[in-house]
Amino acid sequence: MPGKEQSTIEQSQLSGNLSADENKLRDIYKNSSDVVFRSFYIGENDKAMLIYIEGMSNVQEIDEGVLSPLMNVTRDTGTAVDSLIDKKVAVSDVKKVKEISECVKEIASGNPVILVDKQNTGFALGLSKWEKRSVEEPQAEMVVRGPREGFVETLSVNTSLLRRRIHNPKLKMQSMAVGRYTETKVIIAYIEGIAGQELIDEVEKRIKRVDIDGIIESGVLEEFIEDDPYSPFPQALTTERPDVVTANLLEGRVAILVDGTPISMVVPTTLYTLLQSPQDYYSRFLVGTLIRWLRYMFFLVSLLFPSLYVALLTYHHEMIPTALLISAAASREQVPFPALVEALIMEITFEALREAGVRLPKQLGGAVSIVGALVIGEAAVSAGIVSAPMVIVVAITGVASFTVPNYEASYAIRMLRFPIIILAGTLGLLGAMLGILLIIVHLASLRTFGEPYLSPMAPMKGKDMKDILVRAPWWKLNTRPHSTGKSNTNRQSNNQKPSPIRGKE
């Protein structure tokens, strides 16, 4: 079969016969017009071949630092080719390859390969170069105060952004390839001595067992390594911000970086980590605590507000103040649908408008979302399809969902909102409470890389609470989280509370 024949060719050794090795590589790259085979002579007598992929290698460096010095060299009798390349080739990274598969791997990575006649060893040159996006501020994770750098699609740039922040050599980065055809490079980053070895081994084991044609984005890999694939809640923190990854590495977590995407993953994560923003730690602790409490409150509002409104309006009139009840009843007088159907219509319409705003070009997306919501809401109220209070409830719920800093976590809330609305519309407050209990039971049983999803609230860890319900001052955050920083708990010295300089009496 052709596939088996090509696989056999790739696994073979370089023979030293340049024509035979060239034919093997040409057969592998058959019908590939972007693969360049450049014949030349080292000096006057040694025939050689340079193979690279157009657009992935630095052609100028190839011409000036490789071909020109090798073609113009005067080779002394007895001088080995590898010694000649070491002396004449002006390339910092030169790697010897002995198998056809190694040549294919290096060429696919953008590194040109030199084959020399009567030599069973080739030379891969570190001259990869391709177009890449410059470092910019992440559009989905903006902050008022903090770094403006974000990851890009090039893995080497992303690792350098982490190295710029953590200068210690204990920052380790293990590399592996995932995908039969794409062979996507994946980096596991951690700080040795802070991250637990069991966590590192577990992350490595889960990634190695992935067997798929290709990894296009980190979300594909995330689905293969998470603990509970049927949970709506994300079990890895996804971020474009190098400072967020750095902070999590310093707490003993492990980062997973995938080539070709700016989105990195951090494991393990908890529900409270998903509700935290880097802005909390860059502002003063009183402001950070206030904003965090506001975020927790609107997190609950985005999940429960429509269902509570439906339950009270349908079954529990006695719990609504009389004036408000009369106003709501008057606004619903012309509405032909029950509150449950009304809420579902408005929620589905709002979600459709939000998705339309995301998919449209940036210049039109915001305008369509805002204008569409205003026009449709006003028209629906005027036509008597929905009531004005329901429009207000759905609008407040939509605004509240935007306060969740992690976009994947907001998806979970948007998804769970619908079953709770249905439970509230059929069973009243009892149904809403049932939905809340089911969510709490699920979260309490959920694990992410062996760690409880509700940690440190369940199980309760008192020392870690100073960075959950409140954002304690930095001089009080002297220990790492118990669940991730077990091997190295202290991250700063004690007694660093600032105090004014007292003058002489």
From TrEMBL:
It is found in: Cell membrane; Membrane. The keyword Transmembrane helix applies. Residues 479-505 are annotated as: Disordered. Coiled coil: none annotated. Keywords: Membrane, Transmembrane, Transmembrane helix. The chain crosses the membrane at residues 293-315, 365-398, 418-441. Its main location: membrane. It is a multi-pass membrane protein. Residues 480-498 have a biased composition (Polar residues). It comes from the Bacteria. It holds the Pfam family GerA. InterPro entries: Spore_Ger (IPR004995), UPF0353/GerABKA_families (IPR050768). Belongs to the GerABKA family. This is Spore germination protein. It comes from Virgibacillus tibetensis.
